[in-house]
Write a structure and sequence with these properties.
With about 110 residues, the protein is an alpha+beta fold. Helix content is about 30%, strand content about 35%.
Length: about 110
């Protein structure tokens, strides 16, 4: 009986942790660093750049676990985007801009 209870607790804990961190990962066209920095500034994000590449990170929904990231490596032809809620960004701006009720805000 104890094993069953422990198993149920583990399953419930695992299920809750998966649900809160569901994110969509996709590749996007590569943007020049200057363009991504400008977009990042408009979205209120944090831009960083080093010898290997550049990227932008924002807190898309204003709560824990809702970070948006768009990163580009110098030696790859596409950028990598990670956004919450299985969204599919189509531009650098909507990869890092705020969410408005499940859709991307374009007024940033």
């Amino acid at each position: 009986m104890r094993i069953l209870i422990v198993l149920l607790i583990l399953v419930a804990t695992f299920d809750l942790s998966i649900g809160s961190s569901v994110a969509s990962e996709t590749t996007m066209r590569k943007s020049p660093a200057e363009e991504l920095k400008s977009v990042c500034d408009k979205a209120g994000g944090s831009f960083s750049q080093d010898a290997g590449g550049y990227g932008c990170g924002t807190n898309c929904e204003g709560k824990p676990g809702t970070d948006c990231v768009l990163a580009c490596k110098n030696n790859e032809k596409n950028c990598f985007a990670q956004v919450p809620d299985r969204a599919r960004p189509t531009s650098p701006l909507n990869a890092v801009a705020d969410f408005v009720k499940g859709t991307r805000s374009t007024n940033v």
